[in-house]
Design goal:
4-stranded mixed sheet; 3-stranded mixed sheet; alpha/beta
Amino acid sequence: MFGIPGQQALSMTPKAVAQISKLMAAKGHQGLRIGLKKGGCAGMEYTMEYVDTIDPNDEVVEQDGARILIAPMAQMFLFGTEIDYQTALLEQGFVFNNPNVEDACGCGESIKFKDLEELTADRDAQGS
């Protein structure tokens, strides 16, 4: 795990907690796994999938009945992220407020992260 002892890897707004909890209860899933894959204009995209079995290598974040599982390869890139759920006139969905993102494409579908040294320095500064 890439995190800081005693501090959760990410947080969820009340709207995100409500939506995740609602979807978990409706479908009987164990949680929502968040990961990353290569793709898009900026290089990386978030992935989300409901899971029925918790992988022992996943970082588990629970908040008020909502459970997020962070895939092992995504943990260092998601540390400090706040997940929100927003509803607008034409769209609705999860929004990632991620301090580790350096750049995003114009459509907002893909992201570019800070380099590894900068991510490590940011994490170490938060832990002191």
